[in-house]
């Protein structure tokens, strides 16, 4: 299974997201930078099996990219051999232990 990691450390908007996605996945020339095009390519245009993992997301990014997360979760339900996960950035708890939240 291929795994594509999208690091949200330097992603501030959808333009940044699509730029990183295009670096990691060979997308069709006609791909439009929008959620409908992303859904179409994931559900029928990419080689499977495939896992996409978002790492280092902030709580603000969870809100700003909620439609993106929902789009990929829907694609996961519709597409055999496609999985998707996302992780919040690491932080230290009150005891100084590093904690990484998984959604």
Structure description:
With about 100 residues, this protein is α/β, with parallel strands linked by helices. The protein has a single domain, classed as 2-Layer Sandwich (Barnase, Chain D), CATH 3.30.370. A hairpin with a 5-residue loop joins strand 4 and strand 5. The model has no long low-confidence stretch (mean pLDDT about 90).
Secondary structure layout:
Blueprint: E1 2-7, H1 14-24, H2 35-44, E2 50-57, H3 59-64, H4 66-78, E3 82-88, E4 91-92, E5 98-99
Parallel strand pairs: 1-2, 2-3
Antiparallel strand pairs: 4-5
Short description:
By secondary structure, this protein is an alpha/beta fold. It has helices spanning 14-24, 35-44, 59-64, 66-78; strands spanning 2-7, 50-57, 82-88, 91-92, 98-99. A 3-stranded parallel β-sheet has the order 1-2-3.
């Amino acid at each position: 299974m291929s795994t594509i990691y999208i690091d949200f450390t330097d992603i501030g908007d959808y333009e940044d997201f699509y730029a990183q996605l295009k670096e990691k996945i060979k997308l069709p020339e006609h791909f439009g930078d929008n959620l409908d095009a992303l859904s179409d390519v994931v559900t029928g245009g990419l080689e499977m099996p495939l896992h996409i993992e978002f790492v280092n997301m902030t709580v603000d990014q969870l809100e700003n990219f909620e439609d993106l997360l929902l789009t990929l979760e829907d694609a996961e339900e519709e597409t055999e051999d496609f999985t998707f996960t996302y992780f919040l950035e690491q932080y230290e708890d009150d005891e100084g232990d590093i904690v990484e939240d998984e959604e």
